[in-house]
Amino acid sequence: MPGALSALGWARWTWRTLTSMRTALILLFLLAVGAVPGSMLPQRGVSVEQVNNYVTEHPDVAPWLDRLYLFDVYSSPWYAAIYLLLFVSLTGCVLPRALAHYRAMRAQPPRTPRNLGRMPYSATFTTAAGPEQVLTGARGRLTRHRIRTETDGPNGAKSVSAESGYLREAGNVLFHLALLGLLAALATGSFLSYRGNMLVVEGDGFANTVTSYDAYFPGTAVDQDDLQPFSFEVENFDVSYVQEGEVSGQAASYTADLSYRSSPEAPERDHKLEVNNPLSVDGAQVYLLGHGYAPEFEVRNSEGDVVFDQPVPFIARQERTFTSDGVVKVPDAGEQQLGFTSVFLPSAAKGPGGDLVSDFPAARDPVVTLTGYRGDLGLDSGASQSVYQLDTEDMNRLGESPELRPGESWKLPDGAGTVTFTGYSDYISMQVNSNPARLPVLIAASTAVLGLLATLFVRPRRVWVRARAREDGRTVVEVAGLGKSENAALTADFHSFATSLRDRLREGPATETGTKE
């Protein structure tokens, strides 16, 4: 087919299209649009519990969202494809532009135009000073400009060509190079960083090992031996709520008192963990994400022996009231195992329909209700199980408990044992984030801001001064200015330069002609 491109031609066309500024802007826009679901939907990398709650509340749409990786936006294949294409596009676009600007900075200013009267600003005056004196005075006023002196015209007129404001384009190039560095730093961080989520009950501790995490997301190049060997214990946790008004029940503050060690041999230190005050240990940051309740149960078997006695973290079904759901698994109850699904109401009250609800998130009147099962929990099947779900396929339902307050017990049917609600503890959900690229990201972002400021506030300009001797011995001086950006202040600057040059030559009022403003 005549005119058809060869394989090499198509490759060149693809590269030119990919590395154009238009394509880079489109990819940058797509990257921003792709990040919108990550800010609107819960992300597994931030809180697995919130994702599980969303899946429970939206069982129809959640599977489709999961197939599109909308709960893992920033690690999804489609987001990575946009990211990589943007990186390649910026590289092919910015590097040639930076080289071209470097050559332009080393080159001389452009030659003086033949007709200076056509410039946006021009002025003409005469002086008794000679052409060389005029050009010397002009160079003295253009100390911050790059200057080129030449002799032009058939009558031997001499001129000075000056240019300044290269920092504007340098800032533009610096901004894009910093953006490229930012993308590279973020990519490096995804390889060398890790993050993990965990729940820690008040009074318990945490050691930074893979098995201690409820959810662990390592970078491609991260090994479990690379984890910092710190540990901490949650000494105390306090949460305060708004008591009145339209936002009654909204959390006002979370505070956790931690004692930690950066390594097993290091001395113990204290830290007050708050939402905007993470714990920093050896390059890792421990963030406070939220909190919940862990009701405490004591379970006795049919013979009266204690077979279970510990707090169990429950997941809030409603964050406004902290009505929470949880599962208690008792594998050592005897020949048949015991399991319970439970609802925890921190502030029990009667709802409009007479049912039991929670009307406030603080534990004003804590109540639990249980549904008991007996049989095989399926823990020996080899399949992984969630601690928040109970597999009742091989279990028989025992019934439902009455409303239990702290210290009250439920005697199980058929002599299966006794369950006592002994109280509750708070737990906090936290995230550990270790990213060695944090400092490079900060430097790249700061550099981008500096480059942007230079682009916004530096005003590039060109100034020409031509001096030509007349037959009567006087010198005709032409001054012209050209700004590379629309700015009314440049005209005033050019006029100030022309008048100051005239005054330096010790002339009276200038006779100006052809001025354009």
Please characterize this protein's 3D structure:
With 517 residues, this protein is an alpha+beta fold. Helices cover 29% and strands 33% of the residues. It has helices spanning 7-18, 21-34, 36-40, 48-57, 62-67, 77-106, 131-141, 166-192, 438-457, 488-504, and strands at residues 121-127, 146-152, 157-164, 194-201, 205-207, 215-218, 231-241, 251-261, 269-273, 279-281, 284-300, 306-311, 315-318, 323-330, 337-345, 348-350, 356-358, 367-375, 395-400, 409-411, 418-434, 461-469, 475-483. Strands 4, 6, 10, 11, 12, 20 and 21 form a 7-stranded antiparallel β-sheet that branches. A 5-stranded antiparallel β-sheet has the order 1-23-22-3-2, covered by helices on one side. A hairpin with a 7-residue loop joins strand 8 and strand 9. It is elongated, with a radius of gyration of 37 Å. Mean pLDDT is 86; it is low at 508-517.
Summarize this entry quickly:
The chain has 517 residues and is of the alpha+beta class. 29% of the residues lie in helices and 33% in strands.
Give average pLDDT, whole number: 86
Low-confidence stretches: 508-517
The description of the largest β-sheet is:
7 strands, antiparallel
| Number of DSSP strand runs | 23
Q: Helix fraction?
A: 25-40%
Strand content: 25-35%
Query: What is the 3D shape?
Result: elongated
Number of helical elements: 10
Distance between the termini: 57 Å
Quickly give the structural class.
alpha+beta
Gyration radius over CA: 37 Å
